[in-house]
């Protein structure tokens, strides 16, 4: 069947990103704002016309009644203009909120995808960038941009007063326009650099304070403060340079306005002497030419905001293009836990050399597979690929026969449990952390905590399961964090559970609880992948995968592989207890 060709493909244009769609969503509001601006700018003539009437009609006729009537009309027109301006601002604020609503979740997801590809605190900038663009909607920069298309109203009015005024109005607009352009050329690149330097100073501070304890303990505060100061100094330097250049151009614009007003008065005086215009028209022209260049002047005055919003928009767009959302997936039947890996090749983010090469193995549902091997063998990398964190460069990881990328991410997430080597909990309560911040199934939360052997510990905390564990679980000990993270991984007994060094910070009781949890999961039919260095965990495993330098050096039933690796020194476990290696203390490491 022939696939329909999108118009964007025919013209070679890129498909719209969520940012394009968010902008499209606020376009009707923006057109309304521009239409409102037309009436606001028409009403902007009120002051000039009033002055003209006062000078030419009231003063000559000395009619107080006309003056009062005119003033009343002007008051009403000003009130209407103010109401329209307030309404326009409200429309813009709402457009900003709508823009934010349309983009925020996509921005969050894009940051998540970018962080998976290349972990860096800089990706979070995209969320701040969305704020910058949203705030721009309600700022003076955008309002001035909406007024610019209506400048011809003032030019026409000036021309009607006298053609010479029309020429002068056009001239002052051209001068202001040239100055605005010069301002952009002179400051845009510098402001961009200032923003980049600022972002990197902020990122530097964020990553530095993440290691605040190391900084303090080893007296590294001064050195890292200096490095942060360098980034910040660069940002301030660029900002200062841009401000210097902009200051000159802002002054030049102001000079243009003030001088033009005087020229208009001078020309007006001449024309009045020649009886070509009235004194009222002279004053009206001076006001109207001032109004003519006001939006341009406001735009130049707020140029920094305009440039930042534009750069923020571009950064978000770049991120969206770099990390397109995956196509929606069909819901498959819930998996039973059969895992197969075929000729897997994996590259770590930003690395040219693969960390896993030609890895193949398969385990049926309910198997406990131990993954062993020396440091840097690729065990954690394999764990990441098995849970879909890193994509395979070649080959496939299949759960119940379907490649991980074919599963709906939410469904897959519910079917997976993952305990990473570096445990990270999130700010919130213990219950929320165990329930993965989803809907709370209290029975399942307690069951997971009991299986992870952490229920009693949680009960002893001041608020039990509702205890707030602070940013990244900072109020828990390393072992407690690991056990809560284990409970999170086994919450609702997913069908595939990957535990990367789950016993790294556990005491004897913790290890015992881990053993019991793995056995219970096995009984429940879950497939458990246990990455470990410790021999005393191997007794829990049915099968072993031995990795070395990113390739498989052994795979099969536990005793077979261990016998091959360790030879006759393996002591078979009794009654399903932990495997022991003769001549090695319990918990010794297993290496190829
Ligand atoms: N995020 C990453 N970015 C770049 N390279 C990485 C990353 N994570 C791991 N690597 C590289 O991949 C290789 C395998 O690392 P991996 O963490 O998978 O080993 P491991 O067998 O789990 O080691 P250990 O037992 O010490 O945890 C190493 O050479 C490492 O430098």
From TrEMBL:
<feature type="domain" description="ABC transmembrane type-1">
    <location>
        <begin position="31"/>
        <end position="308"/>
    </location>
</feature>
<keyword id="KW-0547">Nucleotide-binding</keyword>
<dbReference type="GO" id="GO:0034040">
    <property type="term" value="F:ATPase-coupled lipid transmembrane transporter activity"/>
</dbReference>
<dbReference type="InterPro" id="IPR017871">
    <property type="entry name" value="ABC_transporter-like_CS"/>
</dbReference>
<dbReference type="GO" id="GO:0140359">
    <property type="term" value="F:ABC-type transporter activity"/>
</dbReference>
<dbReference type="GO" id="GO:0005524">
    <property type="term" value="F:ATP binding"/>
</dbReference>
<feature type="domain" description="ABC transporter">
    <location>
        <begin position="339"/>
        <end position="574"/>
    </location>
</feature>
<dbReference type="GO" id="GO:0005886">
    <property type="term" value="C:plasma membrane"/>
</dbReference>
<dbReference type="InterPro" id="IPR039421">
    <property type="entry name" value="Type_1_exporter"/>
</dbReference>
<dbReference type="InterPro" id="IPR036640">
    <property type="entry name" value="ABC1_TM_sf"/>
</dbReference>
<dbReference type="InterPro" id="IPR010128">
    <property type="entry name" value="ATPase_T1SS_PrtD-like"/>
</dbReference>
<dbReference type="Pfam" id="PF00664">
    <property type="entry name" value="ABC_membrane"/>
</dbReference>
<feature type="transmembrane region" description="Helical">
    <location>
        <begin position="136"/>
        <end position="157"/>
    </location>
</feature>
<dbReference type="InterPro" id="IPR011527">
    <property type="entry name" value="ABC1_TM_dom"/>
</dbReference>
<dbReference type="InterPro" id="IPR003439">
    <property type="entry name" value="ABC_transporter-like_ATP-bd"/>
</dbReference>
<keyword id="KW-1133">Transmembrane helix</keyword>
<comment type="similarity">
    <text>Belongs to the ABC transporter superfamily.</text>
</comment>
<dbReference type="GO" id="GO:0030256">
    <property type="term" value="C:type I protein secretion system complex"/>
</dbReference>
<keyword id="KW-0812">Transmembrane</keyword>
<dbReference type="Pfam" id="PF00005">
    <property type="entry name" value="ABC_tran"/>
</dbReference>
<keyword id="KW-0813">Transport</keyword>
<feature type="transmembrane region" description="Helical">
    <location>
        <begin position="64"/>
        <end position="84"/>
    </location>
</feature>
<dbReference type="GO" id="GO:0016887">
    <property type="term" value="F:ATP hydrolysis activity"/>
</dbReference>
<feature type="transmembrane region" description="Helical">
    <location>
        <begin position="164"/>
        <end position="182"/>
    </location>
</feature>
<keyword id="KW-0472">Membrane</keyword>
<protein>
    <submittedName>
        <fullName>ATP-binding cassette subfamily C protein/ATP-binding cassette subfamily C protein RsaD</fullName>
    </submittedName>
</protein>
<dbReference type="InterPro" id="IPR047957">
    <property type="entry name" value="ABC_AprD-like_6TM"/>
</dbReference>
<feature type="transmembrane region" description="Helical">
    <location>
        <begin position="29"/>
        <end position="52"/>
    </location>
</feature>
<keyword id="KW-1003">Cell membrane</keyword>
<dbReference type="GO" id="GO:0030253">
    <property type="term" value="P:protein secretion by the type I secretion system"/>
</dbReference>
<keyword id="KW-0067">ATP-binding</keyword>
<dbReference type="InterPro" id="IPR003593">
    <property type="entry name" value="AAA+_ATPase"/>
</dbReference>
<dbReference type="InterPro" id="IPR027417">
    <property type="entry name" value="P-loop_NTPase"/>
</dbReference>
